[in-house]
Amino acid sequence: MAPYLDHAATTPLRREARDAWLAAADSAGNASSTHRAGQGARRVLEDARERLAAVLDCEPIEVVFTSGGTESVNLALQGLWRARADGRDAVVLPDAEHHATLDTVEALRSAGARVSAVAVDGLGRISAEAFAEAVAAPAVALATALIANNEVGTINDAPALSAAAAASGVPLHLDAVAALGHVPVSFRALRADAPAGAGLVALSIAGHKIGAPVGTGALLVARTARLSALLHGGGQQRGLRAGTQDVAGAVALAVAAELAESEREGERERLRGMRDALIDGIRARVPEAVLLGDPGADEPGRLPGNVHLLFPGAPSESMLFLLDQADISASAGSACQAGVSEPSHVVQAMGFSEGEARSVLRLTLGRTSTRDDVDAVLAVITQAYARASGTASGKRS
């Protein structure tokens, strides 16, 4: 298999998830039908809901199956804002969020929402103190934050963010898309001691980040949350997400989540070892390269498979082209922005210039990664940087 270092964009489908999908898809029956076939599908669907709830430590009724992370984020943010009370209209938004969140909040701004921005530090981390100050302001309708940054891999202090929102009586959505399978995610623990309707009330995940099929995902919605639906028509899933439910997709997602959680501790150590070898190897060959995000030595640290580097003077597009010529898959940032020649908003939010934000490379490892993948990058990175930066002279080693 060619070296694939873009697991943060999507990771290969797990064989077990594929087999579970095929087995479930072979059975007819709409889970909302009352006949025997329909009720059989319903039992399979609810079993998947219970299994996913066990992984994420929540109640099965709190699991709302969706088509992926983007839909989950939209349902959480638009749903919470539309259901707001007492004239509250402000949204607390950290600067380095995923575009699914940024663009959803921008749509809410067009509908009348005010946005209260929270800066991130030079590592891309949300300040818990600044977040607490923002959610304590009057008229805050909701807050949102990433558990782990999808570009630079920095992990945020999710318990502190949830506690801050709970203390101010503000409903909070956490985006766990990049975090699931790499850090512990417990909906129950993150909601501890929160008053009804405040603190963490919604958490989004995407199946294709953990080896489930593309088009699967879920939003966890606390029983006490007030949320308006985006889709109407059948009243499925507590009335929050109408439409015929995807039984096969739900089963595949549950299987992938179980496997990701069971492997998490061992994979963390394995990926950290390869991650650090990749970082050290690149720095040895390209001393100009700058590691972005948390160095990862201390908690909460960075995602175990994330390597995000600034290559001064080397445009991201050139680096990616040269790596692709060597059959190596990588990225400059979020795949949702692929094909769009824009500087990384995350890197700029961390205090870097627009030019620097156009010269970054994200290499992400996953469960199919091996040391051969690391070695493949190290074998070509020196020449790739020399060519991309216009300094190729044949003298680099």
From TrEMBL:
Keyword Coiled coil: no
Co-factor requirement: pyridoxal 5'-phosphate
GO function terms (MF aspect): cysteine desulfurase activity; iron-sulfur cluster binding; metal ion binding
Keyword Protein biosynthesis: no
Positions of the Aminotransferase class V domain: 4-377
One Pfam family cited in the UniProt record for this chain: Aminotran_5
Enzyme class at the top of the EC tree: transferase
Similarity comment text for this entry: Belongs to the class-V pyridoxal-phosphate-dependent aminotransferase family. NifS/IscS subfamily.
PANTHER family per UniProt: CYSTEINE DESULFURASE, CYSTEINE DESULFURYLASE FAMILY MEMBER
Protein name: Cysteine desulfurase
